[in-house]
Specification:
The protein is mostly helical. Among the domains are: 329-453, no CATH class; 498-598, Tetratricopeptide repeat domain (Serine Threonine Protein Phosphatase 5, Tetratricopeptide repeat, Alpha Horseshoe). Helices cover 65% and strands 1% of the residues. It contains 33 helices and two strands. The protein has helices spanning 11-21, 38-53, 65-70, 105-118, 123-150, 165-176, 182-186, 191-209, 222-238, 244-257, 262-270, 286-308, 328-347, 372-391, 395-409, 435-452, 456-480, 484-494, 499-511, 515-528, 533-545, 549-562, 567-579, 583-596, 601-613, 617-630, 635-647, 651-664, 669-681, 685-698, 703-716, 719-732, 739-756, and strands at 153-154, 160-161. Helix 5 packs antiparallel against helix 6 (165-176) and helix 15 (395-409) packs antiparallel against helix 16 (435-452).
């Protein structure tokens, strides 16, 4: 049932509404849907969009969140704010050869604010902001769709009128509950798309404000056109797609404000008709506004080009295999197949995956591949819609179809591989904005069906069913994005051929200590992609820990053969060779790793261990010192320096190194323990005792801490305290080396003293 409610606005606005509605066909006449006042419509959209993704609020950092947030130094207070303008989304310098050139400083700035307000990496705050952003965008969609579907009309007082309240509500609900948006909302890095969409819509609404009527007649405001350009630039600083709003504003201006008939215009251009002014090109300042938009867009792109540099982003074949195909035919046919998959995700968002690369979508290499049908279906639909958008005699139909296709296609162009190679095959996040066009076309299709249908209630119930299914799908998908384990496992059924899916499942299992299960998934990842060096490296690491050294060496050797500059694999190969007592080869592997990654503190640490095993003490100390210079908080390197100096009798130097280390890492109990041992040997008992007690307070269950404190008391003559801590140590670890013997010596001494007493 359609619920009609009276508008509470002044009578003159209602009259204006009806007068303007009669000027052209009104989409709402044919739409069998609910009619709500604007305020209530927005409240409903906000509530439903919140319900879809509310269960993601307490999710973890998952997938790309680790690199973009946890490992991104640009979020920390010690990084100057100015650096954000010269770094990419992941915290790397834009001038670096390894940079992906994803320039989104405003998005990173919001992450930094989140981090500072939360006082650390607590994901709840990050998720809540994402949910709020999506709800805000969905509410703005009510206004945007009212313009796109109903046209731009103002009352005598300059207030914009909603000529399609039912249609705009339906389209906004479709947008709010679309499951393909889950990655943007539940995945924290999706904030780039959300912020981009927010300023994208504000730019569009700002552009619309430029056409408010005034007493002097219909004119436009240069101020609001410039505001729209600035908001478009802001959208681009959140994500690259934002720049496309300037093109869409121009399309909107031509079709809605100037009511240009594109087919008629093309004909006049072809026949060089001198009456082009009558076609609308010069009417109402269109040329001036297009010039402002073009100049603004060119300026924005120039500034970005100067900041980013001229080098293209570095991607690998596994990221986007079609773009590396030698044949132009193979590239073209696969790009078009990717477009059809994106279209299918909009139509039927049931099979969703966090990553579609690594063999998830095998290349189409010949026309005999049955998947060609998808391309044919896509272009059949697109050509049909384009023909209707150009050739229909119904100007209302032409306008809506052209705007729908424009919002569907233009924001997708940066991800289309047409202008530059992108680093993915299919990415659900990039169709957040194009889904606006889908919602326009869906709503228009629904209006056509409603017009023809005899039982409109059944049609309305069917659309309500679609919305309800999408809400449930959003809730389910949001729950899968709450943790990496659920997210990765959900992809196994969607993309079983994706090596990265198996790799991530394996990595998640390995992080939880389930090495046996992790090995299975790593092996499957390597089987699916025999050149997957990261899977080989991680599998080699596990096999090394399980003392399966020869297979580990084979895998790591193959990894560095495939990718000679893979520094981590070279270091791990060195560790394996060291364990196999092939010291010269291990040293060479370590230095090769350092050659490919100059600042590699962990490799210097392992090199120091190798030198220590070879009794090359000076070299070991130098290697560990390099590790601490590169990473001052490298506790293991500091500890090894203290222990080596202690063992070689250099107590004064060991003490100096220990004090230096504790100044840098004051709460590290292992450093307190090592320095306490040195101070005890130097007979600085009081200071040594204080450090031992502090270390025990930080880690009370370390048997060695209690055992060495007992030795200190034993030497110091505090025999009762020595006995107490020997007993605690033996209780924690009955097999603690040396502790039982020292305890027995103490007991005998106490017995002797008792007899003498």
């Amino acid at each position: 049932q359609i619920f009609n409610q009276h508008n509470a606005e002044a009578p003159n606005l209602e009259q204006a509404f009806h007068r303007m509605a009669q000027m052209e066909p009104n989409l709402d006449h044919d739409v069998s849907w609910f009619l709500l006042p604007s305020y209530w419509a927005k409240m409903v959209v906000a509530l439903i969009s919140f319900l879809c993704f509310a269960n993601s609020y307490d999710g973890d950092f998952v997938f790309d969140d680790s690199e973009a947030i946890i490992n991104n130094k640009d979020l920390r207070a010690e990084t100057p704010l100015g650096d954000l303008w010269y770094h990419d989304f992941w915290g790397s310098k834009l001038s670096s050869n390894t940079s992906h050139k994803s320039y989104r400083p405003l998005t990173v700035l919001t992450f930094r604010i989140n981090y500072l307000f939360a006082g650390g990496f607590y994901p709840v705050g990050f998720h809540v902001i994402n949910i709020i952003l999506h709800c805000t965008i969905s509410v703005l969609m009510v206004d945007v769709f009212s313009i796109l579907l109903g046209g731009l009309q103002f009352s005598n007082k300059g207030r914009r009128l909603n000529l399609a309240p039912k249609s705009s509500l339906l389209a906004a609900l479709l947008f709010a509950v679309h499951p393909v948006h889950t990655e943007c909302v539940a995945g924290i890095v999706g904030r780039a798309d959300l912020l981009c969409a927010l300023f994208f819509l504000l730019s569009f609404l700002g552009y619309c404000k430029a056409f408010r009527e005034n007493k002097e007649g219909h004119t436009f405001s240069v101020f609001w056109v410039l505001v729209s350009v600035v908001l478009g630039a802001t959208a681009m600083l959140c994500k690259e797609q934002g720049i496309t709003i300037l093109g869409l504003n121009a399309v909107f201006d031509a079709l809605v404000i100037n009511k240009i008939n594109l087919l008629e215009l093309i004909r006049k251009l072809l026949y060089k008709d001198k009456s082009l002014e009558n076609a609308g090109l010069l009417r109402k300042g269109l040329l001036s506004r297009i010039t402002l938009l073009m100049c603004g867009g060119a300026g924005i792109l120039y500034v970005r080009w100067r900041i980013m540099g001229t080098g293209p982003p570095a991607f690998t074949e596994v990221d986007n295999p079609a773009s590396f195909a030698d044949s132009l035919f193979v590239r073209a046919i696969n790009y078009n197949y990717y477009y059809s998959l994106n279209a299918w995700l909009l139509l039927c968002p049931w099979w969703l995956c966090f990553d579609w690369s690594m063999g998830c979508i095998p290349l189409i290499k010949s026309v005999s591949d049955w998947r060609i049908i998808a391309l044919a279906a896509l272009w059949f639909c697109l050509i049909g819609l384009i023909c209707q958008a150009l050739c229909s005699e119904d100007s209302h139909k032409r306008r809506i179809l052209t705007l729908g296709l424009g919002f569907l296609i233009i924001p997708f162009l940066p991800a289309s591989n047409l202008f530059f190679r992108v680093g993915f095959v299919v990415a659900e996040r990039v169709i957040y904005l194009p889904s606006i066009g889908y919602c326009i076309l869906f709503t228009y299709g629904f209006s056509l069906l409603s017009k023809q249908a005899k039982k409109k209630k059944i049609l309305a119930v069917a659309v309500l069913g679609i919305l309800l299914i999408n809400v449930m799908r959003c809730a389910l998908r949001s729950s899968q994005w709450r943790s990496e384990e659920q997210l990765f496992r959900s992809a196994l059924s969607v993309c079983p051929l994706n090596a990265k899916v198996h790799y991530n499942v394996g990595k998640n299992l390995a992080d939880k200590g389930n090495q046996s299960a992790a090995i299975k998934y790593y092996r499957e990842a390597v089987r699916l992609n025999p050149k997957y060096v990261h899977a080989m490296n991680n599998l080699g690491n596990i096999l090394k820990e399980r003392n399966e050294l020869h297979e580990a060496e084979e895998l790591l050797s193959l990894a560095v053969q495939i990718q000679p500059d893979f520094a981590a694999a070279w270091m791990n190969l060195g560790i394996v060779q060291n364990s196999l007592r092939r010291f010269e080869e291990a040293e060479q592997s370590y230095w090769t790793a350092i050659k490919h990654r100059k600042k590699y503190p962990d490799c210097y640490y392992n090199l120091g261990r190798l030198y220590a095993d070879l009794n090359r003490h000076i070299d070991a100390l130098n290697a560990w010192r390099n590790a601490t210079v590169l990473k001052p908080e490298h506790s293991l390197a500091w500890n090894n320096m203290i222990i080596l100096l202690d063992n070689t009798g250099n107590l004064a130097q060991a003490e100096a190194v220990g004090r230096e280390a504790l100044e840098l890492i004051p709460n590290d109990h292992s450093l307190m323990f090592s320095l306490a041992n040195v101070l005890g040997k130097s007979q600085k008992y009081k200071e040594s005792e204080a450090l031992f007690l502090k270390a025990i307070k930080a880690n009370p269950n370390a048997a060695s801490y209690h055992g060495n404190l007992a030795v200190l008391y034993h030497r110091w003559g505090n025999l009762d305290l020595a006995k107490k801590h020997y007993e605690i140590s033996l209780k924690l670890d009955p097999m603690a080396p040396g502790t039982k013997e020292n305890y027995n010596l103490l007991r005998r001494k106490l017995e002797q003293l008792q007899k003498k007493g």
